[in-house]
Every structure is written in structure tokens, then in C-alpha cells.
Amino acid sequence: MDKSINKYISETGFCSRREADKYIEQGRVTINDNIASKGNRVEEGDVVEVDGEPLKKKKATVLIALNKPKGITCTTDTKDKTNIIDYVNFSSRIFPIGRLDKLSEGLIFLTNDGDIVNKILRAGNQHEKEYYVVVDKPINLEFIKAMRNGVRIMGTTTQKCFVHQEGSDRFRIILTQGLNRQIRRMCEALGYNVRSLKRIRIMNMTLKDLAPGKWRYFTKEETTTINEMVANSSKTAKGNNDNDGMDE
């Protein structure tokens, strides 16, 4: 065994690589009692600790689908009284895969497997997320075409995507990008404000009969399919702070 420290931490299921980097930067990770730094390698027999506690071997993977209600924040920071971890109140440590804005609702995954987080979030892997959006005034063909072809936001133009009008003031959109608050920013750039935004699908998973505020475990079949879909996930494509692959 010879792997980077952040990869080693994520593969134990403790957290994602990005979160592991934060722990390392804060000086909270040690290898054989020596404070770790980014780029350190972990060899067979090394003892890795976070906050003085040895990392345990990976537990059975937990994968949860939650229909997040409005008002819940996709953070593991328990100082935030609306954090998603306290809301789900799971019996062991889990964390969300990506984000949904506090005012947005719909499907989000939570897991204890940092490696799955990394693979799903990599923007280069083109994993689809589908949303149902209601805006504050009637939309027209010009709006739909603009959304489809790309909108200038945050110093870049969004990728071409599927958009279908569902009513006078609502539409469905399928993204493979994950820019921060992407749909809201796209609408605002075209002179519209989002009244409601619901994520209805991630990859092969939909809300199905999952009521708002409720969660369930992935079935064995769903877990198998997700693992197959991320099996060839790029190991080299890197996201950034604005693009974690599962934002809205």
C-alpha cells in the first residue's frame, strides 16, 4: 500500500478528499505522530490519526437518498441549527454528496464513503442531475433557447443542456455541470427569479415515492448501478470551489 494521505483518509470512509485536505491544512492529521502535510504518502503499517484518534478500517458503505425540504442546509457543521446531519439524525457519521441550496428542495445523497463522494462529484464524469423549476413570470421560447445554449454567469458560459418548458412559468432542466447556484444564476442573468427549485433525479435515482423530508437506503440494485456508473470515474479530473459536480 502506498497512497496519498487524503486518498487514504477518504477510503476509510471518514470524509471526502476535499474535507481531508481541510483537516490536513488545519494540522489535525498525523502520520506516526508527525503532523501530516498535503502530498504525504501513507505506507503499510503507518498509523494515521485525526484529532488524536486513529482512523478505523472502513465500515460497510451507507448510501441514503433524502428528499430535502426547504430550509435545511447541506452542511456537516452542527453549529448551523438547520444542518442536514442533525436533520437526518443517522446513527453513525455520514455526510452529503454535493449540495442543494437552503431554499431548494429535492433529491440529495448522503453516505459514509468518501471514495464514492469523490467519484460522483467529479465534474468530468458527466453525471446527470434533473431539476423542476418555477420562476416569477411567464417564460418564452427565447428564454428556453438561451438556457439550452448557455448563459454567461460567474465569468464563464454554462454548458449546453436539456431544457423543456412544463408550463407558463416552469421548466425542467438536466445539468451535468455543478456551478454554485447555477440554475438561479442562469435565470437571474436572463431577468427571472426562481420561486421554487426541486431536484427530481440524480443519475439513475429519482424521488419516486419519497415524501418531502423523508429518507431511505439505496436498494442493492441501486447501489450496484451507482457503483457501475462511477467505476470508470476519472482519477485526474479536478473540481474547484465553484464546481463540485452536484450543486444547483
TrEMBL record:
The keyword Iron does not apply. GO terms for biological process: enzyme-directed rRNA pseudouridine synthesis. Residues 3-61 form the RNA-binding S4 domain. Gene3D superfamilies: Alpha-L RNA-binding motif, Pseudouridine synthase I, catalytic domain, N-terminal subdomain, RNA-binding S4 domain. It comes from the Bacteria. Residues 229-248 are annotated as: Disordered. It catalyses: uridine(2604) in 23S rRNA = pseudouridine(2604) in 23S rRNA; uridine(35) in tRNA(Tyr) = pseudouridine(35) in tRNA(Tyr). Keywords: Isomerase, RNA-binding. Its EC number is 5.4.99.-. GO terms for molecular function: 23S rRNA pseudouridine(2604) synthase activity; RNA binding. Belongs to the pseudouridine synthase RsuA family. This is Pseudouridine synthase. It comes from Chitinophaga oryziterrae. The gene is rluF.
